[in-house]
Amino acid sequence: MNAQVVLEFIRAINAADVEKMCSLMTEHHVFTDSQNNKVIGRDAMKQAWIEYYKLFPDYHIEVNDVLEKHDIIVVTGYAGATYKNFRHEDKDNSWIVPACFKAIVADGKIELWQVFADMTKAYEIVKRFAKVEPEIDLPDDL
Questions:
Q1: Within a domain: residue 140?
Q2: N or C: which end of the chain has fewer CB within 10 A?
């Protein structure tokens, strides 16, 4: 059952359905990105997803495997997107990377969503194509 909640959450992510995503989060939802940055709270996460979809409107997760143990679900697969949906012939503004996602489900809602992926290429794309400094924290060593 908990795995089904996570898969429903991923379907909402793939559809960029922020309202549906929020309906599947606990009030005190914790998001941890691949740089170990945290966003705490459903309302804060709603705004974070809205801003993220401005950069990567077609962000998606491809699921390969789902592992479930009690309230902990791990999903392996890929994550990818195209910067602001501006597709270039050489695809230098899109990315897809192996990714792993950890979820903790409490009372049928996502309490924790943690991403494990090398996002270097996505950060490089944002830096290269953004006309103004993006409103996300980028690692200094890029």
A1: no
A2: N
**Total domains in the fold of the chain:** 1
CA atoms within 13 A on the CB side of 58: 12
The answer to the question of residue 35 being in a domain is: yes
Q: Are 97 and 79 spatial neighbours (Cβ–Cβ below 8 Å)?
A: yes
Largest CA distance in the chain: 46
In angstroms, rounded to a whole number, what is the distance separating the alpha carbons of residues 33 and 13?
Answer: 15
Whether 138 is covered by a domain: the verdict is no
Pairing of strands 72-82, 60-69: antiparallel
Q: What confidence tens digit (pLDDT) does each residue in 8-33 have?
A: 999 999 999 999 999 999 999 999 99
The pTM for the full model equals 0.86
